[in-house]
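In the previous chapter we treated chains in isolation. Here, by contrast, the input contains four separate entities that must be folded as one system, with a combined length of 156 residues.
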Amino acid sequence: MINVKNKKLAAALGEHIRSLRLQKELSQEQLAYEADIPISQIGRIERGEINATVSTLFVIAEALKTDLKTVVDFKIKK
Amino acid sequence: MINVKNKKLAAALGEHIRSLRLQKELSQEQLAYEADIPISQIGRIERGEINATVSTLFVIAEALKTDLKTVVDFKIKK
DNA sequence: TGTTCTAAACGCATATATGCGTTATTTTTA
DNA sequence: TAAAAATAACGCATATATGCGTTTAGAACA
């Protein structure tokens, strides 16, 4: 990811997902297990290292017992 | 994309984005121009051929003068 | 029929998300 | 402080999203 705007977007998304995960009192490992994706992927997303795909966000939403709308409901820091 | 669930997700997302685009009376070319992404990408997303990344969905949302929440507000066909 | 507009469907190179490990670091807890 | 738990930070292979172009197909229209 070289684009600055994308980095900020990914960072904001990551913080939001982390916040949702902690609200549910889940560890990254538990969330990864429920979403059936590698824990490394959860970490990279929360740290804002990658621009996740919609399919990954979807399984994360399911694992958090919420929906895509909630997962992308965040504000970007300028 | 080999996963069946991901295909259905991408198809539902594509139909929804197409619907939003047509509501705004934009061609794929116009949307691509506004979002500053290749028209081929718009087509592939609308046809459900790919699992778009959040950054791509974000620029599409901006081009449609809406937000990410609206772009991912769709139901998946079973 | 020919022209224009729109979208589909290609091909291809490159960037990067994903998947799966391991090791290091930090935080929490006993 | 020591141990355990949680997370970060690697490396690496593979799948695939993206970017950019061209060609084809279809519809609308003159």
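Residues 27-29, 39-40, 42-43, 46-47, 51, 53 of chain A lie near DNA strand D (CB under 10 Å from a C1'). The first helix of chain A runs from residue 4 to 23. Compare these points with the single-chain example from earlier in the chapter.
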